[in-house]
Amino acid sequence: MSTKSDKPTVLIVGAGLGGLLLGALLEKSGVPYQIFERATTVKPLGSALAIGSNLLPIFQQLDIYDEFLTIAKYLTHFSCYKESLEPMRPTDLTPMEEFTEYRQYIVARPKLYDLILKQVPPHKIRFGHRVLNISEEDNKVTVHLSNKDTFEGDIIVGADGAYSAVRQRMYEHLMAEGKLPKSDQEDLPFSRTCLVGQTKVLNPEEFPVIKLDTCHFTKFFGEDRPFTWHTFNTTEGTLCWMVLHHLSRKTSKAAIEQRFRNNENSEWGAHPAQTMCEETRDFPIELLDGTKRTLGDLYDLTPNELISKVMLEEKVFATWHHRRYVLLGDACHKLNPAGGHGAMTAMHDAIALANLFYAMPAKTSMDIAKIFEEYQEERLPAVMESFKSSQMLAKISARGFTGALALYLSTHMPVWLWRLVMAKQVRYRPQLGFIKAVELKGTVVPAVSPSEQKARAVFEKQQQTAVSI
Fold this sequence. Notes:
Family: Belongs to the paxM FAD-dependent monooxygenase family.
CATH class of the largest domain: Alpha Beta
Number of strands: 23
Organism: Linnemannia elongata AG-77
InterPro entries: FAD-bd, FAD/NAD-bd_sf, FAD_mOase_fung
GO molecular function, one term: FAD binding
Strand order of the largest sheet: 6-5-14-15-16-13-19
Pfam families: FAD_binding_3
Structural class: alpha+beta
Number of helices: 14
Largest sheet: 7 strands, mixed
CATH superfamily of the largest domain: FAD/NAD(P)-binding domain
CATH architecture of the largest domain: 3-Layer(bba) Sandwich
Shape: globular
CATH topology of the largest domain: FAD/NAD(P)-binding domain
């Protein structure tokens, strides 16, 4: 039977949802790890996530499913409106329940973050510790922190976002060796900016929508201006909102400004947002109570520290690993938010890596290279599917003929075709191979996860060995 000393020591840079979940999974598997996050605290920024069958089996395996239900709102439809507030055909999500026997939920990103954070012992995550350097020698990798502490491990995971310092360091090695593809040397492009926020707790008599048992998730399409915007109610009696500005062409952050690398939580950082707030104050919203309201009403009810503006990059990198480095989430694939797959794909990366780290027979350079190749081979097809799906959905909000056509097709799609689209989306339902499997239900069979199968084989062998002893 393998022991803890046989397992690789994993150093995770970045405590976003992907890196944090990886730590929580390694905690369950017995694989040693440490997480390093340059921010002193992770601020409660961001909007919300749609969570369903793609992740709920994992929450059951981690015994956090019931607690998750207390912070999430049951979601059955996306309500769609023109800027004039003329209703459009809603997006029906209930077929997913037939396909998987799991409901779909909306959860505020900070609430989900706190839930996963509780699964990681405090001494295994170091906030306020910036990674200054990473060195390799004697078949080990060493992280050098800003407080002059050092940590030694076998593997370093870059879970530090779209402008990953780990990726930059890894790519420097590849450049020196003449092995970095040209596409990986290009700037991250983006074609949208995003304003997000969450109000304070609201008076239910003034805003009856927050009393609903289900989530009233709305999508509004600008008619004469390049914007779309969303609102939805949360379990804590607040309203979350998000505004997307669709730019006329793709650009890059480097072409506009220097990246604010020294800011805490740069992905959801305190980027100046006041101008965009003023520009969009008069955008109408519908909260089901017959009162004429605008986004400005929600802005006035939102604490300034809970408003942020970010640029939404889009790119799938070709190189995800090298030597003892491996990337996760936005560090290797940054998706358009239109598909709502960004956080999910990052957490699926974490699941695959956790299974593979658990199943490693040894921690030699050869073993590490092999599992990294298996990781990218498994995850890349699913990521590309999400990437293309997100780009396709983003066209619905595009200006001109292309956007109008995409919007028409999406709102007039035959039910049978929409069911096929959803059935494809729920195929990716991986589980942890080192914990008792959750019973498969529903009419759509999940896609095979090689990393889960590999970990399951090791887990069952160890169980048999333990019984015989």
